[in-house]
Amino acid sequence: MLDLRVWPGVEADGSVPTNTPGKARDNGKEQMQRLAKLVKKHRNGQINKVDWLDRLTFREIEVINEREKKASDYLYLMIEFPEVTMDGMPYSIVYYEKDGDEVFQHRSQSDVVKLPDYEILQENLVEAKHHKLARSLRSGGNTRELKPTSTVRDALNTILGYPPTTALSTEEQDLIWKYRFYLSSQKKALTKFVKCINWKVAGEERQALEMLALWAPPDPEDALELLGPAFTHPAIRRYAISRLNQAPDDDLMLYLLQLVQALKYEDFESIKAAYQVMLKEKEDKLEPRNWGSEKLDKSERLEKTEKVEKSERLDRDIRNSDSTSTPVTSSESESQLSTSQEPLMDLASFLITRACQNSMLANYFYWYLSIECEDQADPAISAKQDTRVKEMYATVMNMFNTTLKLGNSIWQKRRAFLQRQKTFIEQLVSLVKAVARESGNRKKKTDRLRALLTDPDPTMKFPFSGFEPIPFPLDPEICIKGIVSQKASLFKSALMPSKLTFMTMGNSEYIAIFKHGDDLRQDQLILQTIALMDKLLRRENLDLKLTPYRVLATSTKHGFVQFIESTTVAEVLASEGSILNFFRKHHPSETGPYGVVPEVMDTYVRSCAGYCIITYVLGVGDRHLDNLLLTASGKLFHIDFGYILGRDPKPLPPPMKLSKEMVEAMGGVGSEHYHEFRKQCYTAFLHLRRHANLILNLFSLMVDASVPDIALEPDKAVKKVQDKLRLDLSDEEAVHYVHNLLDLSVTAVMAVLVEQLHKFAQYWRK
């Protein structure tokens, strides 16, 4: 009798040695094979036979075999061959019988039984009925006077504390709806309330719009959430725009980049219709009046009066009607929310209106739109995007251009400036391309650049050394009138960016870097975010001496970067030996800490803390001492944001870029200044966490932008920033968390090794 191992689903291997052995190999752990060998020896007479002992032994062997079979994942087949004795020798007989060689298919797995589920992806009728009953007017009862208990109030506060990315459960939505009148006095609760509404149900939609009119108006920064892709109802989006209209131009400037991206979530047909109306008005304005114009004016006034009366009747009907079944149209929705002093607008009209009234907004709005129009013109990019998006951006650009053209003299002047800016940059691109075609080293290319700036090529026909003043696209508050050719130079890099010195109207100099062949949109986003964070921290009376220099992408292939007079930390260490020696050289003090003016040391400590926290939150990677810059006044700042949201080309990067040399400049880990640095880090992190909703809302509007590191994983981009803010921790736990991050960053061994390798690579490049 043999116990043979079965190999289901495996083709038999008849070779020696075989891959499908019937007898398992003796691995020393299982007793089954060892005992089988002993049984064979006993059968062959190599072990003495003792009847009483054999009975006990074979019974125990069977128990052991059964136990090991059950414990293993293998299948076993027990075979017993009949024996005959001939001439005193036992023989096992192997014989064949009719149909005895039929193959029996053993199934290692059971059949998968497929049952059709006709209700899958269908509406759950029970939940739908519950939702309808919970939101109906009749079951509302006295919800207007309903007050939550302490337990319910805690639950509501927990829900209101959720970040904007959190989806509300059905129970949480019902709770918000039930206590909507109680929550209507809290402006932060509006976005959570809007998420609870099923806008496809007419009665629920009508009640929601009525509540919207009663709700405490949210801050403009909170209204940004309502412009995201999740909110498509026109009344909600226009209400959000009415709140944004309360924001001053300075704040709107910080959100403008994201608002241009939010145009992708607008109703394209309404934008197109508005443009057609504008073209009709343009034709009417240019058309000369005839002798019957007075009668025409009278008929127009009569028509407008009838429209106003009709709108007022419609508003009265809406207020007096019982909200049960009649669907709510877009115009009816807006009439419930608008006032005569503040008409509701779509996002495109709002941005155009505000841009026409402010030169700074007009400048940046034009270039943000321009790059989107160019982006859509790129076949490689536009093939992946909706053709309607391309048409929409072109339509908005035409609307903006037409509005400026039909406006007053100031608006027309702004339009002329923008056209001249475009011409200037086109000519500058042609010049840079001509320099790039020049053969030779960097010195020869620099000479060619200066020669072309002094005496342009006849094909360019643009006087770079002196031209009619125009607002500089990078900073429209500065008017430039020429480029100082002898101060132009090229940087040491593969693309050789141009360092240009512009002469301003006040006869002062403004230095900027023009990069060609580089997409600056990712740097533009990060610098805009740093500027926003700097403003938020300053509102909390926390000045971290940040340097949010300006970046403007004028195309997908070129743009401007503000030049800040500074030195890389790597150069400082190479020339001065330490950061402290650099400060002593520029701002020595006999009475100051470490021989440095106290203000400079304070600036250095604060800027280090600010950039440690900000680059950590934004997940900025590829940090080394060549992209950390230091000014003579003590400001440290970062450049080159090619890796963000956790991406890093280096292995095992530390959470923050905090090298040994940077800490030594503060006096070491035990110094008073290093403790102040840690304190500033804690404070900055806590303040940014309190403004997490604004930061997350802005990143949410950028998920469909053509920013490389966001486009890699657009669905995870916002979550990456949210995870860095650790909103799940209390303030005390967050401080402890940052404390551990700083300790980990200071003692990171891999960062030191990578820095040495980078220094070695830079040496061989030179």
Query: Radius of gyration in whole Å, from Cα?
Result: 38 Å
What would the principal axes of the Cα set say about the shape?
Answer: extended
Strand content: 5-15%
**How does CATH name the architecture of the domain at 587-764?**
Orthogonal Bundle
CATH homologous superfamily identity of the domain at 587-764? Phosphatidylinositol 3-/4-kinase, catalytic domain
- Report the mean per-residue pLDDT as an integer: 85
**Number of helical regions:** 31
What oligomeric assembly is this protein in? single chain
> Can you identify the CATH class of the domain at 587-764?
Mainly Alpha
Classify the secondary structure makeup into a structural class.
alpha+beta
Catalogue the unreliable spans: 289-328
What fold name stands as the CATH topology of the domain at 587-764?
A: Phosphatidylinositol 3-kinase Catalytic Subunit, Chain A, Domain 5
Number of strand elements: 14
Helix content: 40-55%
End-to-end separation: 80 Å
Biggest sheet architecture: 7 strands, antiparallel
Keywords: ATP-binding, Kinase, Nucleotide-binding, Transferase
GO molecular function: 1-phosphatidylinositol-3-kinase activity; ATP binding
InterPro entries: ARM-type_fold (IPR016024), Kinase-like_dom_sf (IPR011009), PI3-kinase_type3/VPS34_cat (IPR057756), PI3/4_kinase (IPR015433), PI3/4_kinase_cat_dom (IPR000403), PI3/4_kinase_cat_sf (IPR036940), PI3/4_kinase_CS (IPR018936), PI3K-type_C2_dom (IPR002420)
Biased composition (Basic and acidic residues): 297-320
